[in-house]
Here is the input.
Amino acid sequence: MTMQFFDEMPDTWVREISDAIEVYEHTVADAHESAIVIDLTPASMQLLGADSGEQLVIGWTERFGVDWGLGRAGRVVAPQSLGASTPQEIAAAVHLLLTTGGPA
Here is the structure.
C-alpha cells in the first residue's frame, strides 16, 4: 500500500532537521512541511534495498510521529516509525538508516 504523508511539520522543524541531516553529509533533495526527501547514494540504496530512483522520505503523522519510507515525491510504501522525536535524534536516526540500513 502506498501512502502519502499529509500532516505538516512546523517550518522551524523542517529547517532544523534538514540542517542536522546535512551535518552528516547527506543530501536533502527537498524539504517542506509535508516531507523531507533525501537522495540515496549507491551504497545506501543497496543497504535499504531501494529501487533505482527511490529516495528516503521522512514525514510526520500525528498518529505515529516521525515516519520514514522509500519512495518518490513524498509517496512511500509501508512507512515505518523513525523512533525519534527531536531534530537531532531524527537526523541521527536518518544517518543510521543510510549507513547501516536499519533503525536504531
Summary: The beta strands are 2-4, 28-32, 35-38, 55-61, 65-72, 75-81. The mean pLDDT is 87.
